[in-house]
Amino acid sequence: MTDLAATAVHSDDIAKPATDRRGMLLYGLLGFAAGLPFYMFSTVLVLRLQAHGVALTVLGFFAWVQLLPTLKFVWAPLLDRYDIPGFGRYWGKRRGWIMLAQLGIFSAMIAMAATSDDANLAVTALFAVLLAFWTTTLEVAADAWRIELYPSQEQQGPIVAANLWGYRSAMVAAGSGALLIAAVGGWALAYLLIAAAALLPFPILVAMRADADGTGGRVAALTTGLIASAVILGGALAVTAAVGWVLLAIAAQAGIDAGSNVTPWVLGMCMLPFVAMAIALPRIRRSRADSALRTSTALGPYVDFFWRYGYAAILLMVFVSLYRMGDVLALNLSKPMIKELGYSLTQIGRADSLVALGASVLGVGLGGLMAAKRPMAWALAVGAVVAAIGNFGFVWLAHQRVDEGLLYIATAADQFGNGFAGAVFVVYFSLLVNPRYPGAQYAFLTGFAFLLPRLLAGAGGAMVGSIGYDGFFLLSGVVSLAAILFVPALSRVRARSEEA
């Protein structure tokens, strides 16, 4: 759908893997490292809070923890510009950030295990936010590296499939494994074991060869990197706690509590980014290559995207906001609904194990294949349809008797649709970015794509209270299908070049 240069942009950190198999193995590992913690601050956390009697509306508020990935464009330019002391010098910029992020993920999950009684919801939210932050940081570094190494549609298909196979396999392992462990040994043990598993790639990265430009010894680099990481992790904890305290104080002052109807306010907030873009676009389109807007370290990568696509950028943002709506809305509230239907944690865990994994792997594989071999417009349309079917499956399940086999069918439909649409989505976005700014622009695009769905997900508890689970999942599926209406127009979108 967009024309990218045929020449590969090589990473500054490490030469391109000699074979596609090596690249797929590498990105399978990175996907696994990023996927393990995701359910621990989303689905698993919601079930944990529900077990401790937290109100449905408050469960919806915890979906806003997932807003961190939508805001990753705020700190993504830092990952393109700065190295982690020690780690970056020896292993390179991208791997250095990945290693720091893994330590952040591990420490946040240890803290969540220590506070697994959820006696203080503010503390629970603090460590959940930190876990989301470091998980997102890992994804930003890995995505930037992937786009630099594999810029074409044909290359992206198999690499994205391998990455999502690892990512979704880890999500299934963490989701089902955590529930099965929690049913036997409690929530603290579940978080401790998943934390240990999430750190497994760290020694593998440490054992890898040095970057081509790496200097100094491995031991010295590791020691320096660990000390620097401790300082950075401590600083992130202090900043997050301070910001959280201010936000909670503002919410209390505004009278927001478990009984508040926040949906109208959320919908209003969702419109603000689109209004801001429309206002800024005329000036951006007139800006020259040497203007302060386009050369700014903080804003330049994002201004470049709007300069290249113009008003079509707004159309792109509306489309991607709708495209993954069903996936995001179902993530937080599907499990509470299933639990209320009468299914046990053990039954949910079994459904989220081999059934979900098999369906997800199949969906990712077929989605990656279609994205690599077929016109992108067709792949996007098919992805929207199968994702919507997954949401409609929860409506169907709500009207059936409690039967584990039926739960398997609904879970398989959901995971297949999510995997298929997710693979197509990642390939499409990877082709939209300017290879000059892979990390920052991909972070912005994927972050903005999930802004509207995740804002609405935070109000999901209140929406269920008004229209019920049936209406909620029916609505989310219909909205996902609505994205298809944009595909014909998007198929004609081309990026503006500096020469033109």
TrEMBL record:
Coiled-coil residues are none
The record, for SUPFAM superfamilies, names: MFS general substrate transporter (SSF103473)
A GO CC annotation recorded here is: membrane
Where would you find this protein in the cell?
Membrane
> Keywords of this protein's UniProt record, alphabetized?
Membrane, Transmembrane, Transmembrane helix, Transport
> Which residues are listed as membrane-spanning?
24-47, 53-75, 96-115, 121-145, 189-207, 219-252, 264-284, 305-323, 353-371, 378-399, 405-431, 443-465, 471-490
Q: What is its main location?
A: membrane
Annotated membrane topology is: Multi-pass membrane protein
This protein is called what? PAT family beta-lactamase induction signal transducer AmpG
Q: Which organism is it from?
A: Sphingomonas prati
Q: What is the lineage of its organism?
A: Bacteria, Pseudomonadati, Pseudomonadota, Alphaproteobacteria, Sphingomonadales
